Amino acid sequence: MLPFGVGRSEGRDRDRYRRAALTIACNVCSSGLAFIVLIASVSWTLPYLGQQRFGVWMTFSSLAATLAMLDFGIGNALLNLVAGARANEDPRRIRELITHGVWLLGTVGAICGVFLYVALHIFDLRRIFGHSADAANETLTAATLFLVLTCLNIPLGGVKRVCHGLQRGWEQHIVSSVGYLISLPLLYWSCMRHASIPWLLCVTYGIQICMSSCLVFRLNRQGLLGAISGAGRATMWCDSKKILSMGSMFFGLQVGVMCASGFDALIVAKLLGVAEVAKLAVAQRLFQFLTVGISMLTVPLWGLYADAKARGDTNFLSMTLKLSMLGTGAIAIVTSGSIFAASSWLLSKWVGNHLSIPVALLCAVAVMSVVDAFGNAFGIFLNGVGELKSQLVAVCVSCAVSLSLKFWLVSTFHEVAWVVWATVIASVVSDYCVYLSLFRRRIFAHLSVPDDKGASSA
């Protein structure tokens, strides 16, 4: 509620913070319900699934977020472009971008579905998970269902990004909250009847997909999304090229992040066995309260950064970045340390004696959570201002270091904690070597105020 802005931009600054606060408030509700579902999905399913089947269930859960990259960065590009059109107060342009972008994502989802279906029947899942024939059949069914839901999520994920570009991110979180409220009793009912892994996917991931479709109907009713008209076809190709051009940059970032940390579960399953995936999944989910909380604070700022960049409000960019970095860093250090200190008690109440988590793994995930918090806050700023090239270089460095260290350290020491430490080391190396050394002046130029001579001062 503090008066961050001055002069003619004061009203816009306050309105941005108001929208961010509303989005964060709804995100708190949504993420709180998601955290309850997450805890329940572990404590209710682990006793009857066993470590191996539970490891498969957690592998699919981990890949759900990772495979969101199959939109090839189009969703993120759409966010920035819609935010820019909103800053220019051009309703017709907003409708064109949203319509063309969502239809483009629908096409991408259909193409990905075909390729993933073929790939699913080429690879032998028994070689990956080491299962018997019966268990492999269940895993194949679950993988097929997971594939369908993932492809449906591609255009629906773009619709969610559009909400953030319109600075109405709270709509997405309200819909998600309703989905979690529906999932929780269904999950309990399923676990009481020892439901299979495909059914567990339906009552969790599937419910969220169904609820996300409500956003499509809402945009359509508001006249922001519809069929492509004859006049719209003339600009669709131009818009598609623009969206794909920016999206390819975001896609490069997504691929790098996926290679650096998204395949941890598969690496552990291959090198140490699927039972170790359960330990990694539980340790990561224990600290997910922190990572989700940090995302609640930072993600709503993406659209605000893009809007401020389009309007040239450098004062807002500078002040918000400082508050974001300092706030998320302090929260991450205190919260991560508290969770680590109470981890023994929390795990005893959560999973009981069904699973033993090494202290070294908990320590690694605690440090990783703090590193992620700083990186998340800074990355959201870079995304919002369209600073993508420096991020691509940083991600390439991080990916090369991370993958090399993971295979070497895990193979050498045979401890699951090293897969997390490798990510920590790679993140620190890429941040200091790339951002602070190579692109420091370029990044700070976004926060500069032009002087009378056309130059800029930081």
Automatic annotation (TrEMBL):
The keyword Transferase does not apply. It is a multi-pass membrane protein. It comes from the Bacteria. GO terms for cellular component: plasma membrane. The keyword Cell membrane applies. The chain crosses the membrane at residues 21-44, 56-81, 102-120, 140-158, 196-217, 250-274, 286-305, 326-347, 359-385, 416-438. Signal peptide: none annotated. It is found in: Cell membrane. GO terms for molecular function: antiporter activity; xenobiotic transmembrane transporter activity. Keywords: Cell membrane, Membrane, Transmembrane, Transmembrane helix. PANTHER family: PSMA PROTEIN, PST FAMILY PREDICTED COLANIC ACID TRANSPORTER. This is Polysaccharide biosynthesis protein. It comes from Caballeronia glebae.
